[in-house]
Amino acid sequence: MRHRKAGRKLNRTTDHRLMMLRNMVTSLLEHERIETTEAKAKEVRSLAERLITLGKRGDLHARRQALKIINTKKVAHKLFNEISPRFAGRNGGYTHIFKTRNRQGDGAALAIIELIPPEVKEAKKEKEKASKRPAKKKAAQKKS
User: Fold this and answer.
1) CB of 101 within 8 A of CB of 28?
2) Are 26 and 74 in contact (CB under 8 A)?
3) pLDDT, tens digit (0-9, with 9 covering 90-100), for 117-141
4) Helices 38-57, 14-31: inter-axial angle, 10-degree rounding
5) Which of 5, 48, 131, 142 shows the greatest Cβ crowding within 10 Å of its Cβ?
6) CA atoms within 13 A on the CB side of 133
7) pTM reported for the whole predicted model
8) DSSP structural state of residue 36
9) How does pLDDT run across 22-72, given as a tens digit for each residue?
10) Helix or strand (DSSP H, E) at 98
11) Distance of CA 35 to the CA centre of its chain
Protein backbone atom coordinates (compact mmCIF):
# COMPACT_ATOMS: atom_id res chain seq x y z
CA MET A 1 0.00 0.00 0.00
CA ARG A 2 1.17 3.54 -0.75
CA HIS A 3 -0.50 5.36 2.11
CA ARG A 4 1.11 8.74 2.88
CA LYS A 5 3.71 8.42 0.11
CA ALA A 6 3.64 11.56 -2.01
CA GLY A 7 5.11 11.80 -5.49
CA ARG A 8 5.59 9.49 -8.43
CA LYS A 9 8.60 7.25 -8.95
CA LEU A 10 8.31 7.37 -12.76
CA ASN A 11 10.06 3.97 -13.01
CA ARG A 12 13.48 5.48 -12.31
CA THR A 13 16.06 5.38 -9.56
CA THR A 14 16.03 8.26 -7.08
CA ASP A 15 19.12 9.98 -8.49
CA HIS A 16 17.92 9.67 -12.08
CA ARG A 17 14.43 10.91 -11.21
CA LEU A 18 15.66 13.93 -9.26
CA MET A 19 18.12 14.95 -11.97
CA MET A 20 15.48 14.50 -14.68
CA LEU A 21 13.03 16.71 -12.78
CA ARG A 22 15.74 19.34 -12.21
CA ASN A 23 16.52 19.35 -15.93
CA MET A 24 12.84 19.59 -16.84
CA VAL A 25 12.08 22.45 -14.45
CA THR A 26 15.16 24.31 -15.72
CA SER A 27 13.91 23.89 -19.29
CA LEU A 28 10.42 24.98 -18.28
CA LEU A 29 11.70 28.18 -16.69
CA GLU A 30 14.02 28.84 -19.63
CA HIS A 31 11.51 28.28 -22.44
CA GLU A 32 8.30 28.82 -20.39
CA ARG A 33 6.69 25.83 -22.16
CA ILE A 34 7.67 22.18 -22.60
CA GLU A 35 5.99 19.01 -23.84
CA THR A 36 6.34 15.84 -21.79
CA THR A 37 4.25 12.98 -20.46
CA GLU A 38 1.30 13.74 -18.19
CA ALA A 39 2.83 12.16 -15.10
CA LYS A 40 6.14 14.01 -15.50
CA ALA A 41 4.28 17.29 -16.10
CA LYS A 42 2.37 16.86 -12.85
CA GLU A 43 5.62 16.26 -10.96
CA VAL A 44 7.38 19.20 -12.61
CA ARG A 45 4.43 21.47 -11.75
CA SER A 46 4.98 21.16 -7.99
CA LEU A 47 8.69 21.81 -8.30
CA ALA A 48 8.22 24.80 -10.62
CA GLU A 49 5.60 26.40 -8.40
CA ARG A 50 7.87 26.01 -5.38
CA LEU A 51 10.71 27.72 -7.28
CA ILE A 52 8.49 30.62 -8.38
CA THR A 53 7.45 31.12 -4.76
CA LEU A 54 11.14 31.23 -3.81
CA GLY A 55 11.63 33.79 -6.58
CA LYS A 56 8.88 35.93 -5.12
CA ARG A 57 10.69 35.94 -1.76
CA GLY A 58 13.82 37.11 -3.52
CA ASP A 59 16.28 37.06 -0.63
CA LEU A 60 19.73 35.50 -0.67
CA HIS A 61 18.64 32.29 1.04
CA ALA A 62 15.85 31.83 -1.51
CA ARG A 63 18.37 32.29 -4.35
CA ARG A 64 20.66 29.67 -2.85
CA GLN A 65 17.76 27.23 -2.39
CA ALA A 66 16.69 27.79 -6.01
CA LEU A 67 20.24 27.27 -7.31
CA LYS A 68 20.27 23.85 -5.60
CA ILE A 69 17.54 22.83 -8.05
CA ILE A 70 18.10 24.98 -11.16
CA ASN A 71 21.08 23.89 -13.25
CA THR A 72 22.14 27.24 -14.75
CA LYS A 73 22.68 30.66 -13.23
CA LYS A 74 21.18 32.30 -16.31
CA VAL A 75 17.82 30.59 -15.70
CA ALA A 76 17.97 31.44 -11.99
CA HIS A 77 18.53 35.08 -12.91
CA LYS A 78 15.54 34.93 -15.25
CA LEU A 79 13.42 33.36 -12.50
CA PHE A 80 14.17 36.07 -9.97
CA ASN A 81 14.13 39.08 -12.33
CA GLU A 82 11.50 38.27 -14.98
CA ILE A 83 9.24 35.36 -14.03
CA SER A 84 8.60 35.94 -10.32
CA PRO A 85 7.64 39.64 -10.60
CA ARG A 86 5.03 38.61 -13.17
CA PHE A 87 3.26 36.56 -10.47
CA ALA A 88 3.66 39.06 -7.61
CA GLY A 89 -0.09 39.43 -7.09
CA ARG A 90 -0.90 35.75 -7.42
CA ASN A 91 -0.82 33.08 -4.70
CA GLY A 92 -0.02 29.85 -6.52
CA GLY A 93 -1.33 28.37 -9.74
CA TYR A 94 1.52 29.64 -11.91
CA THR A 95 1.37 26.81 -14.46
CA HIS A 96 -1.13 25.20 -16.83
CA ILE A 97 -1.09 21.60 -17.99
CA PHE A 98 -2.80 20.85 -21.30
CA LYS A 99 -3.31 17.24 -22.32
CA THR A 100 -2.44 16.93 -26.00
CA ARG A 101 -2.12 13.49 -27.59
CA ASN A 102 -0.79 9.98 -27.21
CA ARG A 103 2.79 9.34 -28.31
CA GLN A 104 3.14 7.26 -31.47
CA GLY A 105 5.74 4.79 -30.20
CA ASP A 106 4.42 3.71 -26.81
CA GLY A 107 1.00 5.36 -26.53
CA ALA A 108 2.02 7.49 -23.54
CA ALA A 109 -0.31 10.39 -22.79
CA LEU A 110 1.53 13.63 -23.58
CA ALA A 111 0.88 17.05 -22.11
CA ILE A 112 2.17 20.59 -22.45
CA ILE A 113 3.11 22.40 -19.26
CA GLU A 114 3.53 26.15 -19.50
CA LEU A 115 3.77 29.19 -17.30
CA ILE A 116 0.63 31.31 -17.28
CA PRO A 117 1.10 34.40 -19.44
CA PRO A 118 0.49 37.77 -17.76
CA GLU A 119 -2.35 38.66 -20.18
CA VAL A 120 -4.55 35.85 -18.87
CA LYS A 121 -5.04 37.58 -15.52
CA GLU A 122 -5.96 40.92 -17.13
CA ALA A 123 -8.35 39.30 -19.59
CA LYS A 124 -10.19 37.54 -16.75
CA LYS A 125 -10.61 40.83 -14.89
CA GLU A 126 -12.05 42.49 -18.02
CA LYS A 127 -14.50 39.62 -18.53
CA GLU A 128 -15.61 39.81 -14.90
CA LYS A 129 -16.16 43.57 -15.18
CA ALA A 130 -18.13 43.14 -18.41
CA SER A 131 -20.30 40.41 -16.88
CA LYS A 132 -20.98 42.48 -13.73
CA ARG A 133 -22.07 45.64 -15.56
CA PRO A 134 -25.13 44.20 -17.34
CA ALA A 135 -26.22 42.53 -14.10
CA LYS A 136 -26.27 45.91 -12.34
CA LYS A 137 -28.22 47.52 -15.19
CA LYS A 138 -30.80 44.74 -15.19
CA ALA A 139 -31.24 45.07 -11.43
CA ALA A 140 -31.76 48.83 -11.79
CA GLN A 141 -34.32 48.28 -14.57
CA LYS A 142 -36.27 45.78 -12.45
CA LYS A 143 -36.53 48.32 -9.58
CA SER A 144 -38.08 50.94 -11.92
Assistant:
1) no
2) no
3) 986 556 666 777 777 766 555 556 6
4) 70
5) 48
6) 6
7) 0.80
8) E
9) 999 999 999 999 999 999 999 999 999 999 999 999 999 999 999 999 999
10) strand 95-102
11) 13
